[in-house]
Amino acid sequence: MELLKVEQIEKYYGNKSSLTKAIDDISFKVDKGEFVAIMGASGSGKTTLLNCISTIDRVTAGHIYLEGVDVTALKGKALNRFRREKLGFIFQDFNLLDTLTAYENISLALSIQKKSASVIDAAVKNVAEQLGITDVLNKYPYQMSGGQKQRVASARAIVTNPSLVLADEPTGALDSKSSKMLLERFNYLNKECNATIMMVTHDSFSASYASRVIFIKDGKIYHEIARGEDSRKQFFDKIIDVVTLLGGDANDVI
């Protein structure tokens, strides 16, 4: 079942005297329950693409549809409601509120939606158990490790049961052990909870957890590969092959 449709989008920055084309006629689809990674070198347009899908940035041309709704046409309160109800965001630098506990950070989105205290409590405890962070719910961000903070941020992103979870370099600030733990939780959410995830990453190890990888070069789709029946190791090797063709440094992506 098609969830996301990106149709011939373009994104320009600057003015006539100095114009940069960050996205150049990109089209693709994502089905419900897919885990898609977007890869590309720095400056390739991958984060701009994610920002356009997340409505943080607006496209110059083309259309983006989520569950049949033209996201590019939304404005004002309708756009805010769409972000709140349909999207979950996970950022590299966590973006947790320092003055709130993990429980309060996770529950904030549900509070904004005016859910009852009992509904909020059940939802927070459920997602905390899924992500293995029950023991830090009463802690503040400064009392947590980087891995714990990123899992709290992930819990906050999915507690509202959004249609699409968007992750921008979610393992970028984590050590290898914390990265692996987070990616395994993503895999659990994708497989067991049918969460649809789109993740921007420069890291081949992270991308190997996805079911499909789209490679971006110079603002265009360069290539894409699907995992299919491959093991994660086999898929990782295929990703490395494409990264090498892209001109990337293998030492930078392993």
Task: Give short descriptive properties of this protein.
4-stranded antiparallel beta sheet; 6-stranded mixed beta sheet; alpha/beta; 10 strands; 38% helix
Report what the structure shows.
There is one protein chain. The protein has 254 residues and is of the alpha/beta class. It has one domain: Rossmann fold. The chain is 38% helix and 26% strand. The chain contains 9 helices and 10 strands. It has helices spanning 46-53, 76-86, 102-112, 117-130, 146-158, 176-192, 204-207, 232-246, 250-253, and strands at 2-15, 18-31, 35-39, 61-66, 69-70, 87-90, 164-168, 197-200, 212-217, 220-226. The strands form 2 sheets. It has a 6-stranded mixed β-sheet with strand order 6-7-8-3-9-10, with helices on both faces. A 4-stranded antiparallel β-sheet has the order 2-1-4-5, covered by helices on one side. Helix 3 (102-112) crosses helix 4 and helix 5 (146-158) runs parallel beside helix 6. It is globular, with a radius of gyration of 18 Å. Residues 249-254 have low confidence and may be disordered.
